[in-house]
Amino acid sequence: MQPRDLSEHVAYEAGRGIEEVARELGRDPSEFIKLASNENPHGPSPAAADAIREAAGSVSSYPKSTHTDLADAVADRWSVDPAQVWLANGGDGAIDYLSRAILEPGDDVLVPSPGFAYYGMSARFHHGGVREYTLEREADFAQTPETVLSAYDGERIVYLTSPHNPSGSTIELAAVEVIAEETGEDTLVVVDEAYGEFADVDSAVSLLEGRNGFEARDDVAVLRTFSKAYGLAGVRLGYAIVPDEWADAYARVNTPFAASEIACRAGLAAIDDDEHVERTVATARDSREYMRERLGARVWPSEGNFALAAVGDATAVAEATQERGVIVRDCSSFGLPGCIRITCGTERETERAVETVNAVLEELELEREPEVTDT
Predict the structure, then answer these.
(1) Best exposed site among 20, 52, 158, 349 by fewest CB in 10 Å?
(2) Transferase: present as a keyword of the record (predicted)?
């Protein structure tokens, strides 16, 4: 007995954790900082942490009421109908629900390269195919309608990422509107805004609801997560906001109780903790600026909670910084073997990361792209 043919499937490569690295190197975990997975350096929302502790005694119950309450709270935050909010086990769970709702066997999706691997993984899980459009390094990973539409060939889902991972570039809503207008009536444009709180662009929810001068659309969906700005990566909580016409599909494609009791309680507390989000966003902004100014390598402008740096040999640099106690993301798995991605840490963490990377670059004497100064 064997599983189905999985030869075209790839495993997701997550950023390495402190315990994993410390065990491998025979070192004390306290020696390391992890800036590889775009996690919140301030931890979870304090209100959410309190809610998790208080919810411990109620985890014997299924999360029916809290699930409904959280969907209502998210809907209120975005001024949409609660039925448009598809809660999920992380943003990747929401991607799966969209795949189930739209893909027939053999349908294709169009994804950015480089980009989040799970877009394609989910399509393949649901017996779909994957095609790519390329975001060029030479163009600073700019996301334009021309870039996407030149590769479009009738795919059922087109994924956009704003801010884009791993570069941090964004796409304007007018450009999203053009893409949605120029793709077929059976194509859903999905805008992944996992890092949206960190960016100075409006959410594509405006396109669904016909706000800010845009006409309402039924061919755009938005992904959001509690993992980044809210600091809840460990409880796995995300959601999609879908067109009103899609509302009834959720009950037919979601897993029973799509988000756990703990996750829902944490989300309910976190969504109103504006102070924590504002502090997190301010930290990311300062960290990005510091890396752009001080890192001895080209660093692309970013509107996420991370920065992409061209270091010449990503694997060599990542391994060397890891030896010095700073864990960064080798972007070879993104198809960028010359780049590392550094998560925005606290002021102290960011300073340590920059100092460590610069020391490694000097020691390895790698050939790398010249630094670029904003003009």
Answers:
(1) 20
(2) yes
